[in-house]
Amino acid sequence: MIRHRPKLARRALLVAIVVVLGGSLAGSAPAALGAGTGLSRIITRCPILPRTNVWNRRVDTLPVASNSAVLISTMNAMSSHLHPDFGSNPAYGIPVNVVSWLTAWSSVEFEYDDESDVGPYPIPASPKIEGAGADGDRHVLMIDRRSCMLWELYAAERNGSSWMAGSGAIFDLRSNALRPDGWTSADAAGLPIYPGLARYDEVAAGAIQHALRFTVPETRNAHIYPARHDASLLTGSKYPPMGLRLRLKASVNIGAYGPQSRVILTALKRYGMILADNGSGYFISGAPDPRWDDDDLHDLHGITGSMFEVVDTTGFVNGS
Asked: Distance (Å, rounded) from C-alpha 250 to C-alpha 93?
């Protein structure tokens, strides 16, 4: 999904020089683990943000926002149904690179350098890139399961031994800290991407215990907590701000859905989904995995926009 950031003019294609640190520093750098490494090892060793983080807080008892009907109507005009933007095909979804102390650190030149974390970044020699080989956001996510650090890049490109990206952010998965207000991240809303992904290991374990990330084509030039950044010129109150939280209505019957879809839909009732970027309407994000049942996931198309409501998250902050 291509974002629109009016605050900063797009520049011509940048040429970035990767600086691979050697000597004594190389021993502290993270490296890609084997291709068969599952994300469950990350989940068991590192928190996916503290339990008091709003991503991990249930919203099924919070009130409906007073402007819910207007916002839902606007979003329904953009798309009619829920769409899982992930599956068994590695070409779809946002992959995760598990790194360790063996990976070389790389410096990256950023288009939005005034709102990006300088780094360096532990980019594997052959990283898994969202939509690699095609136009799109080209996110690169990297997690070190020992330090519980998360590095994320948007629009990552390599040219020989050089790297460039649109923006980049570094997060401590054990911390509730937010980015400075007004700063983007690898996501337009200034949020971490990884905590909002649907991951197969969670579904196989029977529960997703966090909100999911979703996109719509048009957003307002505004953001609400926990978002830190907006990415639009639209000012009308009918448009959703970044950080908006939706939940699936409790009255929606999910009993006929397949086992994978039911886990996802249960999470959408309990934790909801957070608007994180401009993109296709009602697309929810996940990590690709060959074990996803694509037919099961496809049935999520039966969930329409009218089955959601906007949650009033006033006063809902990290650590409270």
From this structure: 27
Alpha carbon distance 100, 282 (integer Å):
34
Distances (CA, A) of 133 to 12, 51, 137, 138, 280: 20, 37, 11, 9, 20
Residues 6+ apart with CB under 8 A from 2: 135, 136, 137, 278, 279
Looking at 130-134, 155-159, 164-168, 198-202, which range is the least confident one? 130-134
> Domains of the chain: which residue ranges?
23-310
pTM score, whole prediction? 0.87
Q: What is the rounded CA–CA span in Å between residue 279 and residue 283? A: 8
In order of 63, 73, 138, 225, 314, the CA distances from 66 in angstroms are 9, 13, 36, 17, 11
- 58 burial via Cβ count (<10 Å: 0-12, 13-18, 19+): middle
Q: Are 149 and 50 in contact (CB under 8 A)?
A: no
